[in-house]
Structure formats: structure tokens, C-alpha cells
Write a structure and sequence with these properties.
By secondary structure, the chain is α/β, with parallel strands linked by helices.
């Protein structure tokens, strides 16, 4: 019964064939051996099986010890003296002049050293990278690890390099793992004590065998940055590979500011990187049941292993928000009215309430946002949002659209330009956000022609992360011609005097910091995606702001003939969502954000957003 029902095995003439079902061979061997021993039967194991069983027993004991320490720490029984740890860091070579740890970072360090395999789910912009580096430094100083492996998005590589250079100077050799398979394999074999290597999720998954071999050769601390990227509950490629690599790592740590963007199930794979034998989660089906039926109890088991700093603990001066009404003029006002009228006809033509909502969804709300931002956007395919070039049976509408891009500058772009002008005249740096590539291109051209200040542009077409000069197969000439997001941001931030960065939030949502010299953000447009909006604010409002810096957020809101447009509805929705999300981020407890899994759904609004727009179109109070 055990082999057939529990393991799903099929009996043969001389034994059983057991499917892996997402488990490693060692997990199955340990499960069988443990079952037999509990039944009082003697298991004749070969040397390899005895080794696997011994390791599993040691991991269980380790988990039990860690849980006991974690629970005691959560109850206020601190076993690690922060002063002793600070002294240990200084002796190792930590540069306090450049990276003095805040009190909450020291708390995160003490927590990670206490529980060994720790999750740091502090809010974005709280200095999780520096905290993780301090954990690694103490382990190196204590001779419990030899090297550090950081797996994360490509955009995280530069922050790790900068933090390591600032905090530990020449104590670590930091390298990016890239290039072809032979080059990467050679890099793993050459990794030695005192190395910190950086690699992307896909690279780690592809090279799992080489990484496991390296973990068996060296005592490795594995850090998974932006771990919510590895949240897939079932299947996938990254999560199983990272769990397998984690099983061979000496110390494990995961970092995320939003560990549950959609819901409680997002924690499953992340927690199994910390404890790969499912000690924290149990089987996936059991975990799913606990998420749906008793999530508070589940969190009670998980939280002792989690360090979390709320945003209010950062001590940042609140940012100021300025809303600027912009009247749509001339042709663009007529185009917006025609697009809104098309939506109104669709909902009036539907009979049932549900059909009206579906008509709105099929009409693509993003069209209204485009029309309120820059009508010329309707003349182009938008691959990011999956919106083709706009077509209509209205000859009047199509004629106006055809000429708009040639003859007029959108009112919001003109208002944005004047805002930028006022800031650069004060010698300030400004980041301008828009969600649409065509708008980015046109606004960048406008700034360069009208203001004559350095203007940089970053969007999905700009290469992420890797610096071509690091690749032995890339010539210096080719490297000089290739700009990455890193090099563009570095030039923007370090250039003396005023400068402008034009970007879309989707390309700069994680692991990018602008706060050192840029404290003004202007939004030409926004979608209903509140998480993306808050992440973009976090680029300029985060730990490390100069003491006298005042962050300004400027939002342009289109109006038509004195009446509100879709921008007003988006703004109302984002204020409500922002308040809910800030409650979650500013609170010390861990809760799901509730963000839709599909970014297109997030951009075009949830059910409540659709209902509000429907009431607006029908002339009711939204």
C-alpha cells in the first residue's frame, strides 16, 4: 500500500518503479528508508543510500534546531549580540564609512545568523543587498562558507557589484557568469574561496549540474534575489533547479520586497529554496489547502524564518505629490471624445450588466488611456499591451488620427516639457515615466530639441544587466558602441548638473536606484497597475536619500472640456490601491499584495475598475 498509494509506484517482478513526480531521487530514497525503519524492518542500504539517509537526518535535526532558535528570537530571546557582530564585521574589513548598517539592518543580520537559512522580505529600497552582504561577511569571517552565489534578475548585478565594492572593498572578487556553456563551465571550475558570483535565473537552471558540483567542492552561501520571480507553484524550470542547487548549499537566503504579489501560494517555491526537503511547506497540495483554509496558521509557522522591515522604519521624509490638470486641446480633444463615445455605444448596446462589463473589457481600456495621453499612440502597434493599430469605421476619426502625429504635440507632453524645463533650470535631475514606447520616443526627441539638456532613454529595447566589456568574445570597439541600462543610468546619475531620464516603469521596476541624485519624477501617463506605480516611486524614494532631499512626484491628469477623462478614474483607483498596498508595506506583518498575475489585467483594471468606468460612461456618479 505504501509503494502503490503514497509513492505512486508500479510493481514489477523484482521490485517497484516509483515516479519522481517533481522530487529528487534522494528524497524518494530517504522516504522509503524512513518508512521501513518506522515499521521496524531492517533496510539493507548500500553506501550511497546510507550517505543520503544520514544527510537527510542531519537536515531534519538542523531544521528543528533552526526553528527552535527562530521561535525564541521572535519571542524576544536574542542569542546574538549585535555589538559582537558589528565588531566581527569591522575586523573582517566592513567599510562602515561607506555602508554603516542601520539598526533594522543589524536586526536582519542577527536574524539571518540565528536561523541560518533566512528570508529577508523587507520593503523595496530598505537595503536588503547590504544586509545580505553583511551576513555573507560574518560567515566568511567565521569560516563557515567559502564563496557566495547570487541568483537574480540581470538588473540586480550592478547593485550587488556597487554594494560589495562600497562595503567590502577588495575582500571579495565579484564576477558575472555569462558567455557560452564552455566559458561558464570554466568560470565555475575557477571559482574559489572569497568569490561572489552573479548569475541569472535561467543560467542557474541550465547550469544546475555544474553549480551542484561547485557546491560540493566549496562551502557555498546561496542568495536568491527578487525571489518572488521564482514563485511558480507547480511545474516551471527555475524553481525545481534552484531547490536542487539549494540542497547542496551550506547557507541559503532569499530576498524580496513583495514575496506574495498574487497570493499565499507564491511562498511555496521560495520557502523550498530555504528548506528544499519541504520542511517548511509540506507537500504542495497540503500547502495549497492551508493557504485557502488556514493562512494565518501557515504564516505563524513561516514568520520565525522571516526578517521584515516595514517602510515606516526607514525614516524617510514623505514624498510630495503634485497633480497637474491638463486640458486636451483641438484635434486631440475631438479624438478622445470619439474614442470615449465608441466605448459608450458598446456598453449601451449590450443588454445585461455582465455583457456591458465584457464589452468594456473587449474594447481594451488601454485605448482610452492612450487617447488621453497621446492620440498618435493609436496609429501604432503596441506589442507590450498586445494592442494593434487602431481602426474604426468612422472616417472622421481616422482622418484626424492620420494627421495628428505630424501636426500637433500632445497637451500632456507639452505640459510635461514645461515641468521638466522648470526643474532643469534649477539644475535638477528628472525622471519622466510613460508606459508607451512611442510616447517615450517622441518625448525624448522633444526634450532634446527644445531644452538641449542631456536626455537618456530606457525601455525594453535597451539591453539589461550584462556589460559587454565583460565578455571575452566581445571586442572593445563593439563594447564602446553598446549602451546597457546600467551604463545609461550611471551616466545620468553621475553627469554634473541637470539631466533627464525618460523611461517606462516595466523596464525599471526592480533593482534600479535613482535616489542618489534624482529626486523628481514626472508621470506623463499611468495605467491601473498600482504595484508598478509604487515600484517606480521606489526608484527615487528609498534608503540612502540625502538628508535634505525632498522627493517630488508630479502626475499629469488629462481633462476634456472641463470634464474628467479616464485619467481621473485611474487616479482614483490608484489612490485606493496605493493606500491598501502601503498598509501592507508599512506594516510589520506579511500579507499578499493581491496583484493580478497577468500584467495586462493589472494595467487595464480589475472588476471594480470596470464597474467604475461603466458608471462613468453611463453618466452616473463613479
Amino acid at each position: 500500500m505504501f509503494f502503490r498509494t503514497i509513492l505512486g509506484g508500479v510493481q514489477t517482478e523484482d521490485g517497484w518503479i516509483c515516479p519522481r513526480r517533481g522530487r529528487s531521487t534522494s528524497q524518494i530514497v530517504v522516504q522509503i528508508s524512513t518508512f521501513l525503519e518506522r515499521q521496524g524492518w531492517k533496510a539493507h542500504n548500500d553506501e550511497r543510500v546510507n550517505e543520503l539517509v544520514g544527510r537527510a537526518l542531519e537536515r531534519r535535526k538542523s531544521f528543528t534546531r533552526s526553528r527552535e532558535r527562530a521561535v525564541a528570537l521572535r519571542e524576544g530571546n536574542q542569542t546574538i549580540n549585535p555589538e559582537d557582530v558589528s565588531s566581527q564585521l569591522r575586523d573582517f574589513g566592513w567599510n562602515e564609512a561607506e555602508r554603516e548598517l542601520k539598526e533594522y539592518q543589524l536586526s536582519g543580520l542577527a536574524h539571518a545568523l540565528t536561523v541560518v537559512n533566512a528570508a529577508n522580505f523587507s520593503v523595496p529600497g530598505s537595503g536588503k543587498t547590504a544586509t545580505a552582504l553583511s551576513v555573507a561577511a560574518v560567515h566568511l569571517a567565521s569560516d563557515t562558507i567559502d564563496a557566495i552565489v547570487v541568483v537574480g534578475p540581470l538588473s540586480s548585478f550592478r547593485p550587488w557589484e556597487k554594494e560589495a565594492a562600497a562595503a567590502l572593498r577588495d575582500k571579495l572578487r565579484v564576477r558575472r557568469i555569462r558567455g557560452d556553456r564552455d566559458h561558464r563551465t570554466r568560470a565555475y571550475s575557477e571559482t574559489k574561496a572569497g568569490d561572489l558570483i552573479l548569475l541569472g535565473y535561467a543560467t542557474a537552471a541550465t547550469d544546475r549540474a555544474e553549480l551542484i558540483e561547485m557546491c560540493q567542492r566549496l562551502r557555498v552561501m546561496l542568495v536568491v534575489d527578487e525571489s518572488h520571480r521564482v514563485k511558480r507553484f507547480r511545474g516551471g524550470f527555475w524553481a525545481p533547479a534552484l531547490m536542487e542547487i539549494a540542497r547542496s548549499a551550506r547557507v541559503r537566503m532569499i530576498l524580496s520586497g513583495t514575496p506574495m504579489p498574487q497570493g499565499g501560494r507564491d511562498l511555496y517555491s521560495q520557502l523550498n529554496i530555504l528548506w528544499p526537503d519541504r520542511e517548511l511547506t509540506g507537500p504542495p497540495d497540503d500547502f495549497a489547502v492551508r493557504v485557502s483554509r488556514d493562512f494565518d496558521s501557515l504564516l505563524g509557522d513561516v514568520l520565525p524564518f522571516v526578517s521584515r522591515t516595514p517602510k515606516e522604519a526607514l525614516g524617510l521624509q514623505p514624498y510630495e505629490t503634485f497633480r497637474h490638470p491638463v486640458q486636451l486641446q483641438g484635434t486631440e480633444a475631438e479624438i478622445y471624445e470619439l474614442i470615449e463615445s465608441n466605448f459608450r455605444k458598446k456598453v449601451e448596446g449590450a443588454s445585461a450588466y455582465r455583457e456591458k462589463l465584457e464589452a468594456l473589457r473587449r474594447g481594451r481600456l488601454i485605448r482610452l488611456i492612450q487617447a488621453a495621453t497621446n492620440p498618435d499612440l493609436l496609429n501604432h502597434n503596441d506589442q507590450h499591451y498586445g494592442v494593434p493599430e487602431f481602426t474604426s469605421e468612422s472616417r472622421t476619426l481616422m482622418e484626424r488620427l492620420a494627421t495628428f502625429g505630424r501636426d500637433e504635440v500632445p497637451s500632456k507632453s507639452q505640459a510635461g516639457l514645461e515641468l521638466v524645463r522648470s526643474k532643469v533650470e534649477d539644475n535638477r535631475k528628472v525622471v519622466v515615466w510613460s508606459n508607451f514606447l512611442t510616447n517615450l520616443d517622441q518625448f525624448t526627441k522633444l526634450v532634446r530639441s527644445e531644452l538641449g539638456v542631456p536626455c537618456f532613454q530606457i525601455d525594453g529595447r535597451v539591453k539589461v544587466g550584462d556589460d559587454p566589456s565583460d565578455d571575452k568574445e566581445t571586442s572593445k570597439f563593439e563594447a564602446a558602441l553598446t549602451d546597457t541600462r546600467e551604463t545609461l543610468i550611471e551616466r545620468f546619475l553621475t553627469l554634473p548638473g541637470a539631466a533627464v531620464l525618460v523611461a517606462n516603469p516595466a523596464s525599471c521596476s526592480e533593482s534600479i536606484s535613482l535616489h542618489t541624485t534624482c529626486h523628481t519624477a514626472i508621470y506623463l501617463d499611468r495605467t491601473y497597475d498600482a504595484a508598478l506605480f509604487l515600484q517606480s516611486i521606489d526608484r527615487v524614494h528609498r534608503l540612502g536619500l540625502p538628508p535634505d532631499a525632498q522627493v517630488e512626484i508630479h502626475i499629469l491628469i488629462a481633462e476634456h472640456d472641463g470634464r474628467p477623462t479616464i485619467d481621473e478614474l485611474v487616479d482614483m483607483s490608484l489612490q485606493q490601491k496605493e493606500a491598501r498596498m502601503l498598509d501592507l508595506l508599512e506594516g510589520a506583518e506579511l500579507q499578499p499584495v493581491g496583484q493580478p498575475e497577468d500584467p495586462l489585467v493589472a494595467a487595464e483594471g480589475d472588476e471594480e475598475d470596470l464597474k467604475t468606468l461603466l458608471r462613468f460612461l453611463l453618466g452616473e456618479d463613479p
